[in-house]
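Render this sequence as a predicted structure.
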Amino acid sequence: MTTAFALLTQAVTDLAGLPKEGLGEERDSRWRGQRIIRVGEAWHLGVLLLTETHALATAEVLRAADPGRRGYTAESARERAARRALALRGDFGEGEVAHIGWTVIDVDAVDAGGESGPLKLIEGVPSVHWSTAGGWMPLEAYLRERVELLRG
């Protein structure tokens, strides 16, 4: 049986040398105000983010940008622009991708038969819930497809 740990470790090896995207966290201080700072980097594989040491569940993804002076037809568009500006005010350059709100996946719990984030052991096969509308898919096939997409 192949474990989720082994599959993710192999994926990290396969991804070596490919570009990563920034991991961010929101911070608020009296001196610097509210901003999103860079706390690391990861390879973005759909619902997963991989670092050299952790598997993370993807949450909010945004691109750092100056909101400028625009008219917004929806309040949600205004809020999204404000979030992009927080990343720019932090440690992200104009146009850089920032992943916010990610959570660490407990790979050991998955390999023990449990579930963590989008990963679950189904009938002994590490699987990933790849979309809210989609079902479960074997993690091995998912990683193979996503790594190939990143390789371009």
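Summary. The first strand starts at residue 21 and ends at 29. The mean pLDDT is 92.
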